[in-house]
Specification:
The protein is α/β, with parallel strands linked by helices and 326 residues long. It has a domain at 1-164: HUPs (Rossmann fold), CATH 3.40.50.620. It has twelve helices and ten strands. The protein has helices spanning 15-30, 43-54, 58-85, 99-109, 124-130, 133-140, 176-192, 221-236, 252-262, 277-283, 286-293, 316-325; strands at 6-10, 34-41, 90-96, 114-118, 145-148, 167-171, 195-202, 243-249, 267-271, 298-301. Strands 3-2-1-4-5-10-9-6-7-8 form a ten-stranded mixed β-sheet, sandwiched between helices. Helix 6 runs antiparallel to helix 11 and helix 10 packs parallel to helix 12. The chain is globular and about 70 Å long.
Length: 326
């Protein structure tokens, strides 16, 4: 299931974040949970603006930060009332710092079972400017992260606010890591009587496949047979769920996103390894790309035993370097 307790809901008060609140309320109602609404004031952006010549003194900067906090409190209080009016207990939190860092730390300190966060699905320069906070949270979060994109594919009905999951997609590379994440998808399928689509993507074994998407010659029939056999074994081990299996060839994130659209998946459940720095660059951040490009909500899972950063601060420089090259 999604959660048995507290849900963390970061908000920047945009219409996208407002939409994610619907999901948090629906999930909290389903599992008798509580919502922690959090807004992070990115003081570094204000300070950077001052350094570029805005003319604010340190005293004026502090006044501005106090005003931002006061406004955030008022807007969070309004969201708390919306949750309360829906019969959901909610608390508000304001933090200052780097948004992704503070969100991950709050999920830990508040012992939340799930983070629900909106993603704008930006690419290119717009994504670089906006900082891709959602993807950074996905990369670092020790708890499952439900990424919501609006106004594309939904699984929470409006205006009833009921959870309606019919088809869930789970990508696997047959690793022990993926096997430990599969029970999350199975549990959701059983709880909501949903079908499960298992997909394996055999990546094109060429250098820089982004520039050679049609290079499929190296994918042999024996590899395809092996993949189909493994998927069938996996499907046979899952009782009481309607399971379909699919083998694709290409770039994993691209094929998974296209598969989800073709199958009209309500949710993609994808494992994330939690690597950062150079390891993250090597492994490609497949989960983050799926989050960015998928039309439906994405639930990222870090199974027990996967690496989680205990200290986020030492990784900041390497993370910024990685973001600069994406």
């Amino acid at each position: 299931m999604f959660t048995q307790g507290d849900i963390l809901l970061p908000t920047d008060f945009s219409r996208y974040a407002q939409y994610a609140l619907r999901y948090a309320i629906a999930l909290a109602r389903k599992y008798a949970g509580r919502i922690h609404l959090v807004h992070v004031i990115d003081a570094s952006l204000v300070a950077a603006g001052t350094a570029r010549g805005s003319g604010l003194s340190m005293a004026e900067l502090q006044t501005l930060l106090y005003a931002m906090r006061d406004q955030a409190e008022n807007r969070l209080a309004h969201l708390v009332r919306i949750a309360n009016d829906s019969g959901i207990e909610a608390e508000m939190h304001i933090a200052e710092g780097r948004p992704a860092d503070e969100i991950v730390q709050l999920a830990k300190s508040l012992n939340c079972d799930l983070t629900v966060i909106s993603t704008y699905g930006r690419t290119g320069l717009d994504r670089m400017v906006c900082g891709s906070c959602c993807e950074k949270v996905v990369r670092r979060s020790p708890v499952p992260v439900l990424c919501i994109k609006h106004p594309e594919h939904d699984f929470v009905t409006d205006p009833e606010g009921e959870i309606c999951l019919r088809r869930i997609l789970f990508p696997t590379d047959f690793s022990d890591f993926a096997a430990r994440a599969l029970p999350y998808a199975e549990s959701l399928c059983r709880e909501f009587n949903a079908s499960l689509a298992l997909v394996h993507v055999s990546e094109i074994p060429v250098v820089l496949p982004e520039f050679m998407p049609d290079a499929t010659g190296a994918f042999s029939s024996s590899e395809e047979t092996y993949a189909r056999d493994m998927l069938e074994q996996c499907a046979a081990s899952i009782p009481d769920i309607h399971v379909t299996t699919h083998v694709k060839i290409g770039l994993p994130y691209r094929e998974i996103v296209e598969m989800a659209a073709q199958e009209a998946a309500d949710l993609i459940v994808v494992p994330t390894h939690g690597h950062s720095g150079f390891a993250h660059l090597l492994f490609g951040g497949v989960a983050e790309k799926i989050v960015r490009l998928a039309q439906c909500p994405v639930l990222t899972i870090r199974p027990g035993g996967a690496p989680a950063e205990e200290s986020l601060r030492p990784a900041i420089q390497s993370e910024e370097a990685l973001d600069a090259v994406r």
